[in-house]
Structures are given as structure tokens and as C-alpha cells.
Amino acid sequence: MACLFATGILHAQKYRSEKGLITFFSDGAIEDIAAENVSAGSLFNSETGELVFIVPIKDFKFQKSLMREHFNEKYMETDKFPKSTFQGKLSGFSPDISGEQKVKAIGKLTLHGVTKDVIIPGTAELSPGRVNMKSKFIVKLKDFNIEIPTIVWKNIAEEIELKIDFTYKTL
What we know:
There is one protein chain. The protein has helices at 2-11, 65-75; strands spanning 14-26, 33-45, 50-56, 61-62, 83-91, 99-111, 114-127, 130-140, 159-170. It is mainly β and 171 residues long. The chain has one domain: Beta Barrel (Lipocalin). Strands 1-2-3-5-6-7-8-9 form an 8-stranded antiparallel barrel. The two termini are 26 Å apart.
């Protein structure tokens, strides 16, 4: 009986990730653009599957400062839209299985002031007191009303590859 009670406590774990890594890559005809952000925060409830994350857009780092300036001012308009968020549930995760599991995050992604229903494939790896989640997926700029000026259309791809890597610790 005590063993069953202890197992129930483990299922109700809540996790937090304070420095999640988000990277993006644009495969442009003339120049590739890459950036990373280590300021993303996230919460995960292993019992309900609820998952949320917030990404401060201004915290993306680029190789060139001009790329960062254009990204924030011309494309992402970070003064108007300072963050991106996801709110949904993690499907396919079992708190009874340690090791890597294939999962899907199903919910609403808000980017550039536009909210879309998304299904994001990934993996979740459970170990004592931790969960590591990773994903790689494509975002179409037009889906989020992010416009590419005609003068630079060869520099920026219409689809951006995003990679997410969050390491969660119990609360």
C-alpha cells in the first residue's frame, strides 16, 4: 500500500525549465541565418500533460548585430510582440517510463501576435527529478504574418527550422 502511494506522488510531479534553448535556422539562397536563445522558460505537469513556454524574442543572439537589429525591428516587431508562447498538452508521455519517449506537444503557438493550433513532434526523456524535452519543427513565416521585404527575399527562407531543448527539474 505504501508503495502504491509513493508511486502516485511521483506521477504528480511538476517541472520547471528556466533556461531552455531555442535555436532557429533560415536556409537562404544567399546567406544562412542562425540564432539562439537561452532565456526561454517553461512549466510541465507530468500528471495532466499540461505544458507552457514563453520565449522573449529580443533575447535571440546572432553572429552579426545587424541581423539581430533587422530581426527585432523589421520582421518580428518585438516592440509590439515581445514574446512567443506555447500553451497545450504533451501527448504520448508516461511518467512510468524512464528513458526516451516519442511525444507530441498539441496546443496553441503564439508568434508575432498570431495564434495557431499546432502539433509539434519531439522526444521526452525522464530521469530521476528531471525531464529533457527536444523537438525540431518547421514554422512558415506567412502563417504568422511575418513579412519578408522584397529587397531581401533571397536572404530569408519562407520556412524556418526551430529546435527546442528544455531540461526540466522538479519544483
